[in-house]
Every structure is written in structure tokens, then in C-alpha cells.
Amino acid sequence: MTNEQRAEEAGRTVKEGIVNSLKGMNEIEGEIVRLVKDTVTNALSAAGSVSTEGMTVTKDVVRGAIQAAEEVGTGLMTSTKYVAKGIILGISEVGGDIAGAASQITRSAVHGAAVGNRGRNRRRVPRGRHGDAGSCLLPS
Questions:
Q1: In angstroms, rounded to a whole number, what is the distance separating the alpha carbons of residues 130 and 9?
Q2: Which helix (H) or strand (E) holds 95?
Q3: Can you tell me the distance from the alpha carbon of 112 to that of 117, in angstroms, rounded to the nearest whole number?
Q4: What is the pLDDT of residue 88?
Q5: What are the Cα distances from residue 40, in Å, to 9, 11, 19, 86?
Q6: Angle CA(125)–CA(131)–CA(136) in degrees, nearest 5?
Q7: Which of 37, 110, 117, 136 could be cross-linked to 89 through a Cys-Cys bond (beta carbons 3.0 to 4.6 Å apart)?
């Protein structure tokens, strides 16, 4: 086998490995969406009150996803993206407030990320054009 053939074989091996890994990631992401959708749908169907329970379920599901991402060490943004998709699909399936759920997902994700960053050095800076939005914490 020539050096060129070895290089081509190495390239094919890497390509096949990456393709198989990405296929596996797609399957995992799909399972996350399905799990969250089914969990939200079942919880809201059992509660009977989609409007009041929808926000609580959304908040708790996002909190659980953030805790899982921290425990496993995966990226928070990637996990939250698929959890959010599952929540929206679940809320939609039971006829809930999708816009309210999206808003709650955002608030819960931001809060969860902020709580996860406690203990790091942060500095307080003003935010908002007119200072009416309070302040936020940024890494120093």
C-alpha cells in the first residue's frame, strides 16, 4: 500500500466515523424531543388545566434539562434547544399557550444558566436603553 493509499484510507475512516457519530447524535436529539413532548403532554393531560399547569410544567422540565446537562457535562444550549422543541410540541398537542410556553422556556433557561454560574466572578452592569430593566450579571 502506498502512502497516498494510506492517506486516502485514513480519510475514509475518519469520514465514516464522523458520519456514524453524527447519525448517533441525531438519534439522541430526536429521543430528547420525543421524551420531553410525551412527558409534557402526559403531565398536562393528567392535570386537566393546561393554562395554569403549562407554565409550571415548562419551568420544571427546563430545570430538569439544565440539571441533566450539568450532570453529564453536555452543552446547555444544545440540550435546551431540543428540550424547548419537545415542550412546544407537547404544549401544542394539548392545545396550550405556545407563546406563553416559549416565553417561560426562555425565562427558565436564562434563570437556570444564571443559577448554574453562581460562584463565578461576576460584575454588575446596567442593561436596557433607559436603565428601566435593572441590571444583569456578566462574567468579569
A1: 61
A2: none
A3: 9
A4: 93
A5: 47, 43, 32, 8
A6: 30
A7: 37
